[in-house]
Every structure is written in structure tokens, then in C-alpha cells.
Amino acid sequence: MSDSASVSLNPWADRAQRVIPGGTSTGSKRPGVLYGSALASDLPTHARRAYGCRVETADGHELIDLSMALGAVALGYADAEVTAAVAEAASLGPVCGLPPLLEIDVAERLTRVIPCAEQVRFLKSGAEATAAAVRLARAHTGRDHVIASGYFGWHDWSSTALGIPAGAQADVTTVPFDDVTALHEAVANASATLAAIIVEPLVHHIASAEWLTTARDLCNQHGAVLIFDEVKTAFRVRTGGVQQQLGITPDLTTIGKAVANGYALAAVVGCERVMSSASRTWISSTLAAETTALAAARVVLERHAQRDVCGALDRIGAQLQQAVRRALEPHALGIGVHGPSVMWRLTAEQEPVLDALVAECARRGLLLKRGAYQFAALAHDDAAIAAVQSIVSDAAALLRDRTTFSPAET
Ligand SMILES: Cc1ncc(COP(=O)(O)O)c(C=O)c1O
Question: How confident is the model at residue 404, as a pLDDT?
């Protein structure tokens, strides 16, 4: 990936680099991550506003967005009902010295739609929710060891980034996704110290029922807590997540992203037996139950109750996949479309070719996510899907005739 510090960027990105290390506070939105080896000064890096499935860039250009804020938005940007509910909550005072009624309302609604949820604790980010789930599991079992598979956010317990003391990972074993044998081995090694198995149930594809059932059985046998991290999958694959689709119920689940359609809300939910440990340990955040995000979540929950949002996302996602496949097919660039329709990836035989495609699409009005998922939203209407096909087709045709992907792009 190009280091954005070494590439001349647009004035907004340059200005951002001076006051924000990396240019933005969200790692996946850094210019170098957006465009990789194709990073160049004419590419859009900042937005003025977002509406529906569209982004207005700092220069006033319009992009159709398939990243949908890293999956944080599934209805559409600036959804009118969500915005009205948030504005009302703001006007009523989003926080005060007492917990709000809305916290009870949204918690009750979550217990009705997420299979494992008997109780709920709200937080603000997915990383906080997964850290809380692990804390609850350790408090409940009185044990330390955690077996983990997936991405859980930036906190010390789950990351290996620079600046994390080695000891923070001492009680965490990472296992590969969907590997039954590795799971058995890790549990055998942890034996009586096992507090929890935490897994993302979808990484590139939905995990096999065998892997998740094995995790369920092993937790039952060892008195450990099974945690599904459904930060990306709840309110997307199914309202109640992968657990609803496969009928395998964990003890705890973490949710975030689409639950509040772009407002800052996450939660750990689960069975009362484990959740009750929250009263014995310490999990608390000053703004955890502020009402603007809860009001957004209530609208999302109402929308899911009124209509089959996940069914619609599935259909729209399949149409988007088909549009991109059709656009790429004639050009033999070695770029593939993979994954479930609601969240899918572009893969490439040669990474610089995909980077160049993403850059050319951005120049033509389409924001694709390289290295991660494209997310379907209800706001991707027929016109947007047709435009996606036409933009990818034009960009791919241009690249087909390019024989080298120059060092300037690598
Ligand atoms: C499965 C999963 N868990 C946790 C997180 C962390 O969420 P956040 O970035 O809101 O802290 C993410 C973020 O992408 C995620 O995909």
C-alpha cells in the first residue's frame, strides 16, 4: 500500500495529515487504505455529506457508495425517519443525570429479535462491546483464557498492534476461521482455564454449522461462555444475525454498526445467567445510553419489524454483485466477486489491478472498498445499481488496455 505521507494528495487530505495522524481517526478510511498502490492527488478523500447511497465529496462530486461506512449504514445515509428521531432526541436532551426511558425500550426490543438476548448493556463501539463480552465471560466463569477467531476492534485484549504489552495477549489463543480441528486443539490446551470462545460467524462466508456447533458443544462441556461477534452481521444477514439463520444460540452476542444506521451504538446482549455478571464487575461508559443513537436504533428496529429488511438487502446485494460481475466479465482483469450478497468482497489475482480499478471507479463516481466488504443498503436503488454496472464497465475497459501498472501506482 502506498504511504499517503509520501504521495502528494488533495488540499483537504494534506490539511488532515497535518492535524490527524494518518489523516483520519478511522483506520479503514485513510487515503492509503482507500486506494492502495493507486493513491493519487486527484482521488476523493473527504466528504461534505452523505444521503441515500451517495456521498458528496469535498469538491462537490457525487459518488455512489458501496462501502456504506464500513457496514454501519444499511437503510441508507440520512434516512429521513432516523434523522427526525435523532433530532427529536437531541431536542429533548440526549443525556441527563438519570438513565433514559429509551434505554429500556430499545433493550426490550433487542431481546425480542436477537435469539440469545435476554438482557442488554449498551456501549458506543464494537470494540467496547467485544471487550465487555470478554469481561463478562471472565467474570462469570472466574477463568481467564479466551479462544478467539475474527476481528474484534482495536482494544488491547484482541489486537497485536504496536504499543500493546505482551501480557495483554497472554490469555488469548487465536484460531483460524471455520477450522474444527484447531478449535478442538485450542480447547484441549486451555482445558480448565477456558473462559470463552469468541468468534465472528461470517468472515468472507458464513461459518459452517459444524464449526459453530462444535464451539457451542465445547463451551457446554467446559462450562465456558460462547460469544458470537455479530457487529457486522446482525441487522444484515438476518435481523437476529447468523445465530438466527443457523439456529445456533451463543450465550453472548455483540452488536453494533447497522443497529443504529450510522449513529454510535453497540451492545453486548445475552442470557441472564452470564449478563448478570455485569453487576459484579465494572462495565460503564458516560454516554453509553445517550438517546440520539438509541432513537436511531428504535427506528431501525421498527423498520425491521415492519418489513423484511434483510431479505431486501439480500436481493439488492445480489443485484449489485451481478452488475459488477457483468461489468468485469468481458475484460478478464482477474478480479472476482465473492461472498454473501449482503456483504461481499472484490478479490484480485494482482492487487495493483484492483487498486487501479477502485481508483478509476472513484474518478467516475463510485466508491468501492478495497480489501474489505462492499455492503448492500436499502438505498441502492435500480438507478444506482445500473450506474454501478456502467461505471465498473468503463473503468474495467480502460484498464484492459493498460499493459503495466506503473511504479507510480505500486
Ligand atoms: C466483527 C467486528 N467486531 C468488532 C468490530 C469493532 O467495531 P468498532 O470499529 O465499532 O469498534 C468490528 C469493526 O469492523 C467488526 O467488524
Answer: 67
Q: How far is the CA of 329 from the centre of ligand 1 (A)?
A: 33
pTM here is 0.96
**Residue 136's domain spans which residues?**
80-306
Residue of 309, 363, 365, 318 lying closest to 343 (CA atoms): 318
Counting atoms of ligand 1 from 1, which one is nearest the CA of 266?
10
Specify whether 292 is located in the same domain as 316: no
Same domain? For 175 and 254 the reply is yes
Q: 177-231, pLDDT tens digit by residue? A: 999 999 999 999 999 999 999 999 999 999 999 999 999 999 999 999 999 999 9
Assign 47 to helix, strand or coil.
Answer: strand
Q: How far is the CA of 404 from the centre of ligand 1 (A)?
A: 36
| Ligand 1 atom at minimal distance to the Cα of residue 128 | 11
